[in-house]
Design a protein that fits this description.
It contains 13 helices and 14 strands. With 368 residues, it is an alpha/beta fold. It has two domains: 208 residues, Isopropylmalate Dehydrogenase; 125 residues, Isopropylmalate Dehydrogenase (3-Layer(aba) Sandwich). The chain has a ten-stranded mixed beta sheet, with helices on both faces. Helix 1 runs parallel beside helix 13, helix 9 packs parallel to helix 10 and helix 11 packs antiparallel against helix 12. The radius of gyration is 20 Å and the shape is globular. Bound molecules: 3-isopropylmalic acid and magnesium ion.
Length: 368
């Protein structure tokens, strides 16, 4: 049987704890669909800087390119927060990886499990039924634009927000295609009342609309979108936006799903996809068995659906997470704020529950 090669990049902080459970969820669900895996672990981020001086060592990129898919934990370390002058930073590794693999689209589903309605800081009447699919442009915009830097005297710094037509077009097409399979509503989020690059963005999206006559396109300014997202999230279905707006809006949207610890993402655009939780490395809770592994576990479900083309295995993982939540189990970050009855678990115990439940559901459905 052919083995599926997965490159695992634990990264920094809680990355190792959460990817350990992602790996096991993938293996367990995969075993019911005759999938066998071979996992290769490589360095990224602060861990890689410490070992090699480079946040994305060549060996890491080469291994990712040679894999069927990549599973990433998180990168980042507080060391850099207090030393903004440092030139080599963990985040550069992640950005170079996205660019190096040609992953121009970051897909972030805002998947709300009913059981977590009470875990959100927002009112449940507002959020119940929310289901949004974000398409965040990932290899362009202000994250990569040149020139960037500081003027000689050091007192002035600048970044460039730049988009080429083809960059907007390729991700817009993906978002339109997704809209066609869903509610046929597409919100394109920009700042076209102020920014040139946003005016181009809007023009390109507008040019595509005749190709998808069934899709209703709503152009929205990012400040308004940020407000609408918590005012009435159910108005959104597919949201298309640029790199930095997407970064910010998806952190905001995670509060609809209860916690940053619940959101998975898929970065796609070439043969090898990268699957990662949207949360950071959470150094304050690293190594304490407190992190929520569900975002990473759900990222492996996305991997099954998109990269590995075994959606049934992806569904098995999501169903298991759903059942564990239904049974009342919670990590600290997704506690029900209105009851003392929470069954609080650590990272390990939550991971174990998910694995047990994958087995239980598979047996119930006679997948053995
Ligand atoms: C994310 C993260 C990254 C980003 C950081 C770690 C560079 O916030 O994936 O959302 O800004 O893209
Ligand atoms: Mg972010």
């Amino acid at each position: 049987m052919k083995k599926i090669n997965i490159c695992v990049l634990a990264g920094d902080g809680i990355g190792k704890e959460v990817t350990d459970w992602g790996v096991q969820a993938l293996e367990t669900a995969g075993s019911y669909y005759n999938l066998t895996f071979s996992f290769h672990h490589e360095l990224l981020g602060h861990a890689a800087i410490q070992a090699t001086g480079n946040p994305l060592p060549e060996a890491t990129l080469a291994r990712c390119k040679a894999s069927d898919a990549v599973l990433l934990g998180a990168i980042g370390d507080p060391h850099y927060d207090l030393n903004p002058h440092l030139k080599v930073r963990p985040e550069q590794g992640l950005l170079a990886l996205r660019k190096g693999l040609g992953l121009f689209a970051n897909i972030r589903p805002i998947l709300l499990f009913d059981e977590l309605l009470e875990s959100s800081s927002l009112k449940k009447e507002i959020i119940r039924g929310t289901d949004i699919l974000f398409f965040r442009e990932l290899t362009g915009g202000i994250y990569f634009g040149q020139p960037r830097g500081r003027k000689e005297d050091g007192a002035v710094a600048f970044d460039t927000k730049i988009y080429a037509k083809y960059e907007v077009e390729r991700i817009a097409r993906m978002a339109f295609e997704a809209a066609m399979t869903r509610k046929k509503i597409l919100h394109s989020v920009d700042k076209a009342n102020v920014l040139e690059s946003s005016r181009l963005w809007r023009e390109v999206v507008q040019e595509l609309t005749p190709k998808y006559p069934e899709v209703e396109v709503i152009h929205m300014y990012v400040d308004n979108a940020a407000m609408q997202l918590i005012k009435d999230p159910k108005q959104f279905d597919v949201v298309l936006t640029g790199n930095m707006f997407g970064d910010i809006l998806t952190d905001e949207a995670s509060q609809i799903a209860g916690s940053l610890g619940m959101l998975a993402s898929a970065s796609v655009g070439s043969e090898v996809g990268l699957y990662e939780p949207i949360h950071g490395s959470a150094p304050d809770i690293a190594g304490k068995n407190l992190a929520n592994p569900l975002a990473t576990i759900l990222s492996t479900a996305l991997m099954c659906n998109r990269g590995l083309n075994v959606p049934a295995a992806g569904k098995l993982i999501v169903d298991a997470v759903d059942a564990v939540l239904k049974a009342g189990y919670r990590t600290r970050d997704i506690m029900d704020q209105h009851t003392d009855e929470n069954k609080i678990l650590g990272t390990r115990e939550m991971g174990e529950r998910v694995l047990e439940t994958i087995h239980a559901i598979a047996k119930e459905n006679v997948l053995v």
